[in-house]
Design a protein that fits this description.
Largest sheet: 5 strands, antiparallel
Distance between the termini: 21 Å
Number of helices: 1
Order of helices and strands: EEEHEE
Shape: globular
Helix content: under 10%
Strand order of the largest sheet: 4-3-2-1-5
Strand content: over 45%
Radius of gyration: 11 Å
């Protein structure tokens, strides 16, 4: 799904439980990114915090914050 790796602050789209979500990248790991969701989406997914982990293989970058 992903041809471009996200940078800090990028907005990405990913799928969870058959639904599409958009969030902001807050941390980059070797195999994944940590994404901040809005409170509505976090509650819908029954997350304790608005942060979730998304593999680099499972998102697309919507808006890049970098100066590539």
């Amino acid at each position: 799904m992903n041809s471009q790796k996200a940078s800090l602050g990028d907005r990405i789209q990913f799928s969870r439980n058959g639904e599409q979500f958009i969030g902001e990248v807050t941390r980059i790991r070797e195999e994944s990114v940590i994404v901040k969701l809005n409170d509505t989406d976090a509650n819908y997914l029954k997350l304790e915090t608005p942060l979730t982990v998304v593999s680099h293989k499972h998102y697309i970058v919507l808006a890049s914050n970098s100066l590539k």
